[in-house]
Amino acid sequence: MSTIDRQALDWVVRQSDHPLDAESQRAFDAWYAADIRHQGAYLRAVAIHRALNGATVQESLRPKRERLEAEWAGASWQVAGSRRAFLAAGGVAAGAGLFALTGLFAGADRTVLTTARGEFRKVPLADKSVADINSNSRLEVRMTAQARQVRLTRGEVWLEVAKDKTKPFIVEAGEVRVRAVGTAFGVRRFANGAEVLVTEGTVEVWSSDGSARKRLVHAGERTVVADRAADIAVARQPVEVERKLAWREGKLIFDNQTLGEAVAEFNRYSQKKIVIADPALGRRKLVGQYQIDAPERFAQDVGAVLQIPVSITAEKIVIGGS
How far apart are CA 301 and CA 306, in angstroms? Predict the structure, then answer.
C-alpha cells in the first residue's frame, strides 16, 4: 500500500470513529485538495469501508484496519474522465479525474460531499441522480426508503434528479426548501437565503420559517428566497439561468454585470484574490466570457478596456490604483 493510500485510510478510520473537530477538518480539507491522487485514494477508502461496514452488525465485527488494508490490496477501480478544476500554486489549474465508484453511496444513511476552493465535482448519487458541486461547497446527502434529502450547508450545487414519485427529493438550504421530481436545477446558498435556478422540469420552493406561500418554478426561471420569506418572486430569465450556471463548463460569463460583481465571482474560485483599488471602478459595467482559472487574463483585459493599471503578484491581483 502506498503512502497516499495509507493516509487516505487513516482519514477514513478517523472519520468513522467520530466527527472531526474544526482543526482536524481543516487539515483533512487541505490534504484532500492538495493532490488529485489524494482524492482518488480517499474515495477508494470510503467505498471499501462502507462496503465492509454495511455487511456487519455487531460492533465487535466491524471492519478493522487490517481487513481494510487487505481488501484494498485486492480491489480494482475504474476511473471515468471528466472536467475538474484544482488548486495549484496559489491559483486554479484545470485537470481531469472524476472518480466514479460503484456503490459509493449504497446503504449509506448520510454522506457528506465537499469541494475546496477552485474544485468541482460531479457525483452520481445512490438513486441515479447526479450532483454537480461548485467550488467551496458542502452538502449532506441522505437516502432513505421514504425520501431523498440533500442539505446544502455551503456553496452551490446543480442537481439532475432521477424520477421516483414514491420518494420526494428535497433540498434544504438554510430555511429554504426545494422539492423536485424528475427535474434539473441549481441551488446556491447565501447567508440568509438561497437562489434557485431551474434548467429542466418544475420544482416547488418555499421557506420553512416564513409566511410566503409555496411557489412553482419552471425551466428557465429563477428565484431568490429569503430564510424568512414573506413573498417569493419568480422571474422567467432563461439566458440568465444559463449564464449563472456556466461554472459547470468552467466558465464565467458577464453580461452587463458590474466589475465588482465579476471580481466577486472570480474570487469564489481562486486563492489569488482580485482587489479593486478604487471603489468607483467597481460600478463599471462589462461584458465578456472567461475561463474560471484565468483571473489574470480577466484583470489584464479590464485594464486595457478601462485604461487603468493592473498589478499582478504571487499573492493578489490589483485593478486600478497608482
Answer: 8
pLDDT at 104 over 90: no
Architecture of the domain spanning 109-248? Sandwich (2.60)
DSSP string, 157-196: EEEEPPP-TTS-EEEEETTEEEEESS-EEEEEEETTEEEE
Question: Among residues of the chain, what percentage have pLDDT more than 90?
Answer: 54
CB of 220 closer than 8 Å to CB of 196: no
Closest CA to 107 of 56, 160, 63, 170: 56
Burial class (CB in 10 A: 0-12, 13-18, 19+), 253: buried
Q: What is the dihedral of CA 233, 189, 91, 81, to 10 degrees?
A: -100
The residues of the chain that CATH labels 3.55.50.30 are: 250-319
Residue with cell 458577464: 254
Q: What percent of the chain shows pLDDT beyond 70? A: 78
Tell me how crowded residue 131 is: count the other CB atoms within 10 A of its CB.
20
DSSP class of residue 220 equals T
pLDDT at 182: 78
CATH of domain 250-319: 3.55.50.30
Q: Where in the chain is the domain with CATH 2.60.120.1440?
A: 109-248
Mean pLDDT value of segment 83-98 = 31
Span 203-227, average pLDDT: 93
Average pLDDT, rounded, for the chain: 81
Q: What is the spatial distance between Cα 178 and Cα 186, in angstroms, rounded to a whole number?
A: 10
